[in-house]
Amino acid sequence: MMRISSQQIFSGGISRLQELNSSLNNTQQQISTGKRVNQPSDDPVAAARILKLDQELSRVETYQRNVNLADNRLNQEESALESSIDIIQRVRELTVQAGNGSLSANDRQSISSELKERLDQLADVANTRDPSGEYIFSGFQGTKQAFVQAADGSWQYQGDEGQRVLEIDDGVTVPISDHGKGIFVTVPKAITGVEAAGNSPGSYISGVELADGDALQNAFGGAVPNDIQLTVNGAGEVIAENRNTVPATVLATTPSPAVIGEEFEVAGISVTVSDAAPGDEFTLAISDKQSVFKTIENLIAGLDSLGKDTAKSAAQFDTLIADSLNNLDNAQESIVLKQTELGGRMNAVESTKNFLEDSSVYTNQIRSELQDVDYAEAISNLSFQSFVLQAAQQSFAQVSRLSLFDRL
User: Fold this and answer.
1) pLDDT (tens digit per residue) in 120-144
2) Model pLDDT for residues 247-292, shown as the tens digit of each residue
3) Which residues form a coiled coil (predicted)?
4) CA dist 219 to 231, 243, 268, 269, Å?
5) Nearest of 221, 230, 235 to residue 253 by alpha carbon
6) Residue 251 carries which DSSP code?
7) Is the peptide bond before 255 cis (omega within 30 degrees of 0)?
8) CA-angle at 349, arms to 344 and 354, nearest 5°
9) E strand or H helix at 349, and its extent?
10) Contact 137, 180 (CB under 8 A)
11) H/E element holding 364?
């Protein structure tokens, strides 16, 4: 027969009571926190999985913040570009109005005044800042104002050509900025005729227009030169040359020969040289770039200074209007192309945003299944454990009072 001492009875009873009390406390903690796993010892396997899920949720939340930042920046840029198009469209309407031959000098001055206001509005849009105060069109130079007005009144770009990129998911990056130089400055310029400084007084070039783009490409085998040089010879003929080659290449004209005062075409470009003397030179600038600010500035200057009192001034004014319209159209096209590019980025951001949201929901669901407590089960366990603990306490109290002296 095995003998059990009083010490063993007391030690075993106390140990059992402590065990039951610990289980009861754990159940109470689960109910109060709403978590089934409050420490790794509660369920080591589930705890390890919960830790990995927490890390995944942290990763997703970081990328969600990046997605929201990218979305806000792209939306702000898109809004600024839309405002720019509205301003340029109004400038174009004023340019068409200015080309009306029946307008008086006062009418042109009135148009010039509004153009100055529109130019300032465009500069304000190009100097848009994000909520942190950085200029969105300054490239990497976010703290530097994108466009600054120089002493001569012209607007000059001060940023760099950097483009900020943000990671919005593992291995997925999206540009969140565009520099103002690519949008507002390097805009293709209409083909223009420029007369040399030493030309005879009264000579001028007019009617410059690209009549056949394919002919321009074919004339140079696809490699379009920066300019074409026009020179008046002793017979009053206009000789066209491509001086980018050595020696210079003479270009065919239609009709041939081209003569002063009559329209002719060279490499798909129609042009008229008037009142020129032998030796006078003109340049057809083909591949130049010009900022939209410079286009409006030139238009304002022309409205303020040019009249139509002579054939030359009238031709210059008409050329100014035609070139301005072409340049404004090019500026609008440049912005629209950027808007199209922005649209693609915004679609990518939206898709990634939806993916991250789905991933977050799925991960939280799995985490909840592993960690969250089943209140019905927990409350049932609590009642049962409480009952068992009370029974054990009463039993221990009864046993602890047993003694041999009670039988003597």
Assistant:
1) 999 999 999 999 999 999 999 999 9
2) 888 999 999 999 999 999 999 999 999 999 999 999 999 888 999 9
3) 53-80
4) 19, 14, 8, 11
5) 230
6) E
7) yes
8) 125
9) helix 311-371
10) yes
11) helix 311-371
- Exposed/middle/buried for 175, CB within 10 Å: 0-12, 13-18, 19+? middle
Domains of the chain with CATH codes: 35-187+289-372 (1.20.1330.10), 192-287 (no CATH)
Q: Which residue has the tokens 């066209």?
A: 240
- What's the farthest any 2 CA atoms get from each other in the chain? 154
Six token digits for residue 39: 């420490």
Query: H or E segment at 169?
Result: strand 165-169
> Taking Cα atoms as reference points, which of 285, 66, 259 lies closest to residue 168?
66
- Determine contact, residues 192/285, Cβ cutoff 8 Å: yes
267: alpha, beta or left, given left = phi > 0 and alpha = psi -120 to 50? left
**What are the φ and ψ backbone dihedral angles of 29, each rounded to 5 degrees?**
-65, -40
Alpha-carbon gap, residue 354 to 350, rounded angstroms: 6
The alpha carbon of 154 is separated from its chain's Cα centroid by a whole number of angstroms, namely: 26
Paired tokens of 43 = 């369920």
What is the pTM (predicted TM-score) of this model? 0.77
Closest CA to 127 of 161, 75, 84: 84
Helix axes 44-98, 105-126, angle to 10 degrees: 170
Q: Are 201 and 313 in contact (CB under 8 A)?
A: no
DSSP state letter for 253: E
Residue 212, classed as helix, strand or coil, is coil
Q: Which residues of the chain are under the pLDDT cut of 50?
A: 1, 404-405, 407-408
Q: DSSP string of 71-130? A: HHHHHHHHHHHHHHHHHHHHHHHHHHHHT-TT--HHHHHHHHHHHHHHHHHHHHHHT-B-
Please give the Cα distance from 330 to 141 (Å, whole number). 26
Cα→Cα distances 331→91, 97, 159, 231, 290, Å: 11, 19, 19, 32, 9
Torsion of CA 58, 60, 63, 68, to 10 degrees: -110
Q: Please say whether the beta carbons of 111 and 91 come within 8 A.
A: no
CB atoms within 10 A of CB 23: 16
Neighbours of 341 (CB within 10 A): 12
